[in-house]
Each structure stands twice: as structure tokens, then as C-alpha cells.
Amino acid sequence: MMQEITGEPPTVWGTSIIGFGTYHYRYASGRQGVSALASFSPRRQHLAIYLIGEFGSRHRSALARLGPHTTGKGCLYIKHLDDVDQDALGELIDRSVRVRKGIDRASA
N or C terminus of the chain with fewer C-beta within 10 Å? Predict the structure, then answer.
């Protein structure tokens, strides 16, 4: 799904993150770097999907349709991929990628 959304092949970032594409970021502090447009990490307890910060408050309608999940500041945690709505998950990933590419703003 992430490869389809980003149009990029998977790449290993570090020891356990699978990323697709890249984007450049710069914080107000001046710190900057490169990160993956879309990424996930398969963990023992859950699948961690990395999205834009504060996505939980920005994309409530997609999260309401998603199914069983928990969230962190910029992470979506899913125990079983088969238990979630694939269209809602794709929408969340697509919105995150579009914001990182500068196509959309980070609003709801």
C-alpha cells in the first residue's frame, strides 16, 4: 500500500523501519534532515505506522472508520492489519504523504 501511494520502492531505515521515498524537513530551531515519506516498523506487539505529527486530531473521520488501533504523537499502532479498514488506512497514509510533499496542509 505504501509503495502504491508513494510510487517509491521499500528501503530499510536503521534496523527495523521500512520506508518509502524521502522528504526533507526543517524545524523552527533550524534542525533539519531527511526522512521517509511513508514508513512502518513490524514489532512484536503491533505494527507501527509513522504518520505526520498530531494526525490523531487532524484526521478523526478516517480514524473513526479505521477499526481497532491506538495512536501516539506521530504513530499509528495496529495489532492485526486484517482487522482494520484498508481504505481508511490508505487515506491516512496518503494524507500524511501529501503533507510531507507539500501538496496539502496538515489541517483536518
Answer: C
In sequence order, the 6+-apart residues with CB closer than 8 A to the CB of 41 are 16, 17, 18, 47, 48, 50
Residue pLDDT, tens place only, 48-59? 999 987 777 778
72 falls within a domain: yes
Q: How far is CA 2 from the centre of its chain?
A: 9
Name 61's Cβ contacts closer than 8 Å, sequence gap at least 6. 108
Structural domain range at position 76: 57-108
> Nine-digit cell at 8?
517509491
Q: Is residue 95 in some structural domain?
A: yes
